[in-house]
Each structure stands twice: as C-alpha cells, then as structure tokens.
Design brief:
Layout (H helix, E strand, L loop, with lengths): L2 H106 L4
C-alpha cells in the first residue's frame, strides 16, 4: 500500500469515526429529549391529578354539607308535624271533654 493510500485509509477511518460519534451524540440528545418530555408530561399529569383530587374532595364536602342540611330540614319538619299532631289531639280531647261535661250537666239538670 502506498503512503497516499494509507493516508486516504486513515482519513476515511477518521471520517467514519467522526460520523459514528456524531450519530451517537445525536442519539444521546434524542434520548435526553425524550426523557425530558416524559418527565415534563408526568409533571403535568401530576398537576392535573392533584387538581382533580382537590376538586373531588371539595365536591364530597359539598355533598356532605347538603346531606346534613337536608337531614336538619327533615328533622325540623318531623318535629313540627309531631307538634301539630299533639295540638290536634289535645284540641280533640278538650272538645270531647267539654261535650262530655255539658252532656253530664244537662243530664243531671245542673243547667236547668
């Protein structure tokens, strides 16, 4: 092999090595970009997931408050209904007692 051919051979080998290094560097950069994109995507997903969890907690608290409010209203209505029943029963009892006393008085001639 002539010195000129050897020189061309070494230049070609150097060129091939440089191309390989450039390719490896590009692959490494692409890999780094992919990892960065994945980390960025995971961070965004975490933010969205955390926000959804907070919204869910707030919604659950609103539902609990609404249920408690409904229970309180129902309890008040039941108490009012019970009081009304007692009033009606006492009025009916008082009216019945009055009629009985009047009938007794008339029967025994107290009002004659």
């Amino acid at each position: 092999m002539t010195p000129e051919q050897e020189n061309l051979l070494f230049e070609s080998i150097g060129s091939i090595k440089a191309s390989q290094e450039a390719i490896l560097n590009s692959v490494a950069e692409i890999k780094a970009d992919i990892h960065h994109s994945i980390e960025k995507s995971e961070a965004r997903q975490k933010v969205v997931t955390d926000a959804l969890k907070e919204d869910l907690k707030a919604s659950e608290l609103r539902q609990i408050a609404a249920i408690n409010k409904h229970d309180d209203r129902l309890t008040k209505v039941e108490e009012k209904l019970t009081n009304q029943r007692i009033k009606v029963a006492s009025m009916g009892g008082a009216a019945g007692l009055t009629v009985s006393l009047i009938a007794y008085a008339v029967k025994n001639g107290i009002w004659n």
